[in-house]
Amino acid sequence: MADEPSRQGSRIFWNRNCSRQQLRYGRHGDSPNFSFEVNGLLSLSGTNGLDANPASVIADLLTNPRYGAGFPAANLGDLTLYSTYCQALGLMLSPMLETQQDAQQHLSDIVKLTNSAIVWSGGLLKIIPYGDQVVTGYGATYAPDTTPIYSLGDDDFIVQETSVGANSGVTPGGPALRSGSGPITGGFSDDPVQITRSTPADATNSVQLECLDRASHYNTAVVEAFDQGAVDLYGLRRESSLKARAIVDAVNVGPIVAQLLLQRALLFRNTYTFKLGWRYCLLEPMDLVQITDLRLGASALTVRITAVEEDDEGTLSFTAEDFFGGYSTAVLYPKQSSAGYVPNWSVPPGDVNPPIIFEPPAQLLSGRLEIWFALSGGANWGGAQVWISSDGNSYALAGTVNSTAMQGTLTAELPSHASPDTTDILSVDLTESQGQLASVSATDAANLVTLCYVGGELIAYQTATLAGANKYDLATLYRGAYGSTISNHPPGTPFALLDRSIGRFSYPNTLIGQSIYLKFTSIQLRAVVSTETDNSFSSCS
After folding, report:
1. Is 341 helix (H, G, I), strand (E, B) or coil?
2. In angstroms, what CA-CA distances link 278 with 127, 158, 161, 281, 283?
3. Quick one: which of 430, 435, 482, 476 has its CA closest to 456?
4. How many CB atoms lie within 10 A of CB 66?
5. Which tens digits make up the pLDDT trace of 121-167?
6. Sign of CA dihedral 308, 309, 315, 318
7. Looking at residue 190, what is its pLDDT?
8. How far apart are CA 152 and CA 288, in angstroms?
9. In 10 A of CB 338, how many CB atoms?
10. Cα 302 off chain centre by
């Protein structure tokens, strides 16, 4: 068993991963869930002692005599360069095999996430990184060979598709094959190097990876990389989200992988095709060559071979892509902190602040019966589900409030005064909701654009002057709007701006004159937790 990775049921781990087990205990056979991290033997092969180096995973997956794919170890090429590349960039993975899938697909998924390619040549399976510049990190230095193997020109390319002229002593690639129409060339006079270029408007400019986050109990985390310039020019071009659950470090590994995938999608849009004779049979995918074609204006242009095909006549057809020489290191913007930012889905949102609940005047309801709520919470609060009951026991979901109301309290007394009130100041503190207010024109204020709820009275203001952090002095007040009663309001009176952040829920006529009970279940983004605040409300007849 010493050679095997950690196992759990039918799942195999090469590193540290999280799973759930049910343990039965107690007299009544309760079965709670417990979370465990399974530490595989290859977890020490990575940079952090938690994840595994992809080169070690691939070698073990293919060649382990007990549980491997049965691939002959003698046919596996040297993975040292690939291992060094992953180590230097910190591309450490934690793949978990829990579903049946071809070994070739597992291999393909790993090399795609690590910016590399699979090459079968000379009876050996090789994995070669696309990285094209020196990278140093995590105690390793990756230094690729960027020297082109051949410099190809007009005397090297083959421009005919048949063996015409073979009996005339003309060797493949000779200048006679470029001399125009005649018995040797068969009349073929097209350019020897063909270039296909895709339009930048169709290039992917946003990449999303579906990773797992070790820091958040291995919950799913989406990591995105995008090019804002390309998005602004051509609109958002995003393919479906790529499942990358072998990545469990959504802060350090995920952004690098996403950025490398984005750069390949944006930059590598030229495809070069050309033909060579059998003397170039040692060329293989991922090799670098220089091509010169004066008709195309290409002079010693370095390209990377991506595919080689041989026809029945021994002619080799090559497909190549651009080689920029500065692409291997992902260009990432500086992080806001040393740990970066990934949403923590396990942080509770906290309770709602004391809500403001009231029935608005009929002029604002368009003939419907509604209850309005002003709800807010702490730093992790993202809204609340509203539950309603007529007996205080059984509750039904009435809806969801997804925004924070501009809610607070008065910090000074507001005397009773006829409208428009240009004498008094409405001083409010919106710290509990982190709210902000803005001044408006005299016309907007008179039209009640800034309508507010102040202890039952509806008031609009014109000027909002910042008096401190989330504190405002409101002046030029339009009092008693929509028939509400103008009254004196002491400090501590509830205040709320009646904008689109206010929750609005209709209720049937059968509840008129009855007491109803409300619960507000706080939510954080999409994670609902059991944080409730009970409030009762008696509807008006």
Report:
1. coil
2. 25, 11, 14, 5, 10
3. 482
4. 8
5. 889 999 999 998 888 988 899 999 999 999 998 888 887 544 444 44
6. negative
7. 62
8. 11
9. 6
10. 33
